[in-house]
């Protein structure tokens, strides 16, 4: 029976519905076909097919012919064929078998009789597996001619091609944009002139955004305009323009720099095909890894100090052969301490490591990239040492990773600590408000010390997922001091480069946007307009409240970004990259090299370097889809935990509204899963809000289930084989990444449901007393939480050259005070002497770093005066791991006599407390 009901029109601009959403749609179609085939109502199948067919136009597989076959079977009322064909397509998509097996493209249930019409017989006949991708063709050719166009493209493919691709055709700008957003398999785009602007499908959110961009008339849909739009959302794509006009003029247009190559009409269609393959090959090539594979297959005589090379000492041994069997022969064949013979030097690369780093710079949007093989701790210390010297002042997030603090010690720089907003209820800090950073700069200016402030050093995103508005921070700070250096520790955020939503919040993404803004003549006008409005001598309070615009003519853009590649990409542990976009790099290149010599190992691991090379390849070719999947998995976890009737009774994942105070969410954004939220409202938040929340980082509150973070983390690991990240007093951090699958989500949800059920049953069996004990435990974890201590101030002995409005200090001097055993003393934490000295003096001055885990940041640094709030916090801590503190000995302090020997304290020096 025909379905007369008119299905709701499918939207094409649902960009938060990623690869998993598409798979769900196909599973729903198969289920509806099964029901129909068993005699059920076919209405659900027709509605599902109609909705699914809209966005399937943006994918190479199943393609026009298979989708037409599905529609024909439905129109004919053939439930059996509909079920069989839908099942085959869904299975091919799930297993990705269509990328290698020509039979999956057939409209027939058995055999490949019609395959030559769909795909050339070269698919599946190559001896080696060939990677598959899709190429988007944007054209003004009528849709009735598309099957012939597809056939012509397929005829170009040859068995000798290193890759195989399927063309996807669209006829307008909106569909081209949606295809690039919804189809992660697209690796190249061919843009012909003459296409339309509007899609025939529903796209109200997209239409509002394009209208705001000035895309309102059909004449606005130019090939070059589309190229710029696509390059902005997916910079890794190779773009090709085809024009039947004056291609020489177009090719010479500076605006065409986003295009890989310009072609005239279709006269060189084979050249275009080869160019597409060459472009993908350029991203596929991994200079170091490729050479390492060749090296491993050569007969090498090793007479250097690396006995494990070639594996003879391992595989000939009766005692350690099991290690060789575990890791495999290639690991040892590829080991060497040589830097010649096809290999290269990490310290001074001139060959394939240099080429690999150049490719990484392209991938990250940087001018240059350094590979680092002993973690981002080393990347941070390299940058700090290279860019700062003794006496330089750096504005530093007090809650940053300890490598930054130690970097200041090594450089002799003076940290001016600024505080993040506290999240006391969850025993964690957020990020540093921009007003706090600006106030520190303005105070330094008032003190006549702004020339000594060289760097802003911040963590983006934080451990718990707080993301800065990097562009706004840099622009407003550059308005106060135009030559500031910015060091953004993005250890946990490297993947964000490959998300069109999150990229703008990365250091390199923001730096590229600022650089483009500086070239726009409107930037000077905007600056001069604001200066006229502010007047000659605006007060600090006015400057603090104003969104400052820097002078684009004065800016010296100097941005550094460190990434723990191993934390969010497919690199081996300790693999890190340091990205640079610094117009003044030539002035610091020599000292940067010295910093590399200081910290980098002279014996780097070859496999680790290769993994950095390969991780770049993967992210350039499939990172967009992998990150979209990681975000989709995070949304699934958030939604399931917070809506499941049983789980949500004891656990919840905190949304953006709980993690980011309202005053920092100027757009009014509350959460990714809030009713009415779509990609446009999320985009407004990402563009405008002072802080955003990384959706892949989920704070799971477990205190409401009676578990502290440490014990719950242990329970998940020991009993359920689930590993999570950091903990707080009453939460654990769950992170989705490019490695996760929907099965991982199911496992986590199943475990949380099991634990929730056990709590339910325990409370039911235990009666009133069990409920009282449980409620007391929850109250202790969720309400009786210690206040978080701010940084107090450096002791005057370490502030001999400090200003009166700034609180920087000589952390290096404080650090080395601990080397004088006679000048240090120990007092136990609960000794009454602590309380007496807090009340009556003399000051308690820390001789070292004290770092409890959690929260994982220094609550004391060398030379810091210890306050009551710090002692109260330590006394309430119930964590076992506190670096720099031995409970048996007590706090390590600099003695009063040692402080006196360092010089008399200045009477006028104030006691600072950082602004909240």
From TrEMBL:
Gene Ontology molecular-function annotations: transaminase activity
Pfam families according to UniProt: OKR_DC_1
Entry keyword set: Aminotransferase, Transferase
Cofactor: pyridoxal 5'-phosphate
Entry annotated with the keyword Transferase: yes
Organism of provenance: Bradyrhizobium pachyrhizi
Gene3D superfamilies: Molybdopterin biosynthesis moea protein, domain 2 (3.90.105.10), Type I PLP-dependent aspartate aminotransferase-like (Major domain) (3.40.640.10)
Residues annotated as domain Orn/Lys/Arg decarboxylases family 1 pyridoxal-P attachment site: 286-515, 558-735
CDD domains given in the database record: Orn_deC_like
Protein name as it appears in the record: Decarboxylase
